[in-house]
Each structure stands twice: as structure tokens, then as C-alpha cells.
Specification:
With 315 residues, the chain is an alpha/beta fold. It has 6 helices and 17 strands. Helix 1 runs parallel beside helix 2 and helix 1 runs parallel beside helix 6. The chain is elongated, with a radius of gyration of 21 Å.
């Protein structure tokens, strides 16, 4: 007979690790399942200045290493397995992976979200080395540099306005001939003297030896290609890819309530529409996706799971 855990946490990013820490400290028998290595998106971040207290060695990998060490110190079990099936509506939840089947009294979903990539050559190699997917995280690193924002929706234009507080110049590169952002946001961007636009254009390639040095753009209507080269004095420029995120929520369709973009719905206490199932981190519908909000979500979800177990599984 399979072991029944108190809580299974799906995902080992900041939200999942925070949930594991709080669950472990609460003496809950806890299992964290992660399909790859711990850390989520933050492991690609070379500098982390906006997580409170992250001053010494402020990198994503170092922060995650410290989180994992804390979690392990409370005897939380961690396994690498990709979840393929779930059955969450019964009293005992069942989570099936490619390596085994797991049971628990409660489940915390912290599977995260991933930035939508351009798919251009050089993009992955230069992520964290000039290519970024988070203006709130990285805009300050490009103070007095040129920055190119790829996208034309609300997020791209809003973040361009934010980046313009730091950058020397912001150029929005959009594959269409008009923005998709709300008119009120567009008006602010058009009035901003530091924001320029390149229309009907896509990124063909990003180049650089360890850091972004140039970018090849292609006009979709004419086919003309243009190479943007870094200012000689700067040596680099910023590229913010803001074309949307993909919540890792396919597994939960028709099970957990979600919005039209696939983000799971949860209340302020991380409760989903199913008793005993909680949500935390970037997979949750929320206004700010940062490490600090993910860890907060995870803590709340674990405390609520502890409360749920106490109320429903008293011996």
C-alpha cells in the first residue's frame, strides 16, 4: 500500500520550497515533486537585488541553494518526477508521475509559469546576459543603456514605461503595425520622449560572446534585415522579451478553476475550488510574479494545508 503523505507539493521553485519549509517545520509529512531541478525561473537570474536580505552572493542559484538546504534540514522529502495524471477530488489525493504514484491528504500546486520565448537563435544562450523576461527584476541593471522591448501588449508597453525610468532609450519592437495594449497605456507610451517604436518587425537572431552585443531584426512586410549593434562605449544593450507567460497548468484543466489565460484561481488563502488543494506562486492568477510573492504564497498555502489536515484528519 502506498504511503499517504500529509502534503504533496508540485513544483520546487521559490513557492514550492517555501511551502515545503513551512510544512516541514509544522511536522507535516511532506513530499516535493519537481520534474527537473529545484529553482524554477530564478535559477537563470545572475543578479537578484530585489529579494529582501539577498545581499551576500545575490544570485538566483545561490538563493535557491540556501532554500533547498533549509527545506532539507526539516526532513522534507524531495523527488524528481514528471507528473502525468492527477485525481484531486477525493479525500486522499492521488498524483501519478512517470516514476511512481503518490498519495496525500492535501496538495499544493506550485508548478510555476514560463516566459513565452521568441525562439530566435541566441536567445537561450544569452538569457540572463542581456536578454531578460522581467522588467521589475532587471530594468535597473540597464541604467543609461539602450533597451529593446519585444512585444506590443499591455505588459510590454507598461514595462517599457517602467524601464524608461532607467534606460537611456527604450525601443518597442512589435511584429504588427499597431500596439495591442489598451489605448490609455498606448497614449502614455507615445507621449514618452524616451520611447521609440519599430513596427512590423521580428527578432531573427541575438548575437554576443557571453553578453548581448547585437540583434538582427527582420521586417515582416519587406523582408529587409537590420542588425542593431551595441554602442561602442556601452558594449551591450538590454533585450526584454515580453510576449507573455505560459502557466504550467495543462494538467489541471477541467479540474482546478482557472482564468482564460490558464492561471489557476485561488483566494487570498491560496484555496482552490477543491477542498484540500491549494495553489501558490507564478501559476496563480495574481498581479505580481516575483520571488518575494511566490515565497509568501507558499508559506500561506502550507499553513492552510496544516489547518485543513487538522480539521479533517483528526486521529
Amino acid at each position: 500500500m502506498n504511503k499517504i503523505y500529509d502534503v504533496i507539493i508540485i513544483g520546487a521553485g521559490p513557492a514550492g520550497l517555501s511551502a515545503g519549509l513551512y510544512a516541514g517545520r509544522a511536522k507535516l509529512d511532506t513530499l516535493i515533486l519537481e520534474k527537473e531541478k529545484a529553482g524554477g525561473q530564478i535559477v537563470t537570474t545572475e543578479e537578484l537585488e530585489n529579494y529582501p536580505g539577498s545581499i551576500e552572493d545575490p544570485t538566483g542559484p545561490k538563493l535557491i541553494a540556501r532554500m533547498v538546504e533549509q527545506v532539507d534540514s526539516f526532513d522534507v522529502e524531495r523527488k524528481i518526477d514528471e507528473i502525468t495524471e492527477i485525481d484531486l477530488e477525493k479525500e486522499i489525493k492521488v498524483v501519478k508521475g512517470s516514476k511512481g504514484e503518490y498519495q496525500a491528504r492535501s496538495v499544493i500546486i506550485a508548478a510555476g509559469a514560463k516566459p513565452r520565448l521568441l525562439g530566435s537563435p541566441g536567445e537561450k544562450e544569452l538569457t540572463g546576459k542581456g536578454v531578460s523576461y522581467c522588467a521589475t527584476c532587471d530594468a535597473a541593471f540597464f541604467e543609461d543603456f539602450d533597451v529593446y522591448v519585444i512585444g506590443g501588449g499591455d505588459t510590454a508597453v507598461e514595462e517599457s514605461l517602467f524601464i524608461s525610468k532607467f534606460a537611456r532609450k527604450v525601443t518597442i519592437v512589435h511584429r504588427r503595425d499597431e500596439l495591442r495594449a489598451a489605448k490609455s497605456i498606448q497614449e502614455k507610451a507615445f507621449k514618452n520622449d524616451k520611447i521609440e517604436f519599430i513596427w512590423d518587425t521580428e527578432v531573427k537572431e541575438i548575437k554576443g560572446d557571453g553578453i548581448v552585443e547585437s540583434m538582427v531584426l527582420r521586417n515582416k512586410k519587406t523582408g529587409e534585415e537590420t542588425e542593431i549593434v551595441a554602442n561602442e562605449d556601452d558594449g551591450t544593450f538590454g533585450i526584454f522579451v515580453l510576449v507573455g507567460y505560459l502557466p504550467q497548468s495543462d494538467l489541471f484543466k477541467n479540474v482546478i478553476d482557472m482564468d482564460d489565460r490558464g492561471y489557476l484561481l485561488g483566494d487570498e488563502n491560496m484555496h482552490t475550488n477543491i477542498d484540500g488543494v491549494f495553489v501558490a506562486g507564478d501559476i496563480r492568477q495574481k498581479s505580481l510574479r516575483q520571488v518575494v510573492t511566490a515565497t509568501s504564497d507558499g508559506a500561506i498555502a502550507a499553513i492552510q494545508a496544516e489547518k485543513y489536515i487538522g480539521e479533517n484528519f483528526e486521529e
